[in-house]
Design goal:
7-stranded mixed sheet; 0% helix; mainly beta; 4-stranded antiparallel sheet
Amino acid sequence: QVQLVESGGGLVQAGGSLRLSCTASARTFNYYVVGWFRQAPGKERDFVATIGWRGDTTEYADSVKGRFTISKDKPRNMVLLEMSSLKPEDTAVYYCAAGSRWSFVQDDYEYWGQGTQVTVSS
């Protein structure tokens, strides 16, 4: 069982930056694919970014490419999502998730955190 905890959300003005962290309870976290998803009010949860278990393969949703960066901090059992040039449409609850396979589909991820709110004001 892997427990995930997100942190780093908050309120930021458009054009600003935030860094989200996803910390896991188990060292085996380092052997999982980790993804970030987000859910805006009244919308479905969407894929944002994912990183392979080695940390050398990443993929991003088109809407965040060039603005968001996902990375793994293996010694600290943590995955980071650096977000810059934030837009009001980035406002959502952001979730991290861990899974055994490379995927952009939320159903393929086995473990989920509780989410952290990101609000971008215009």
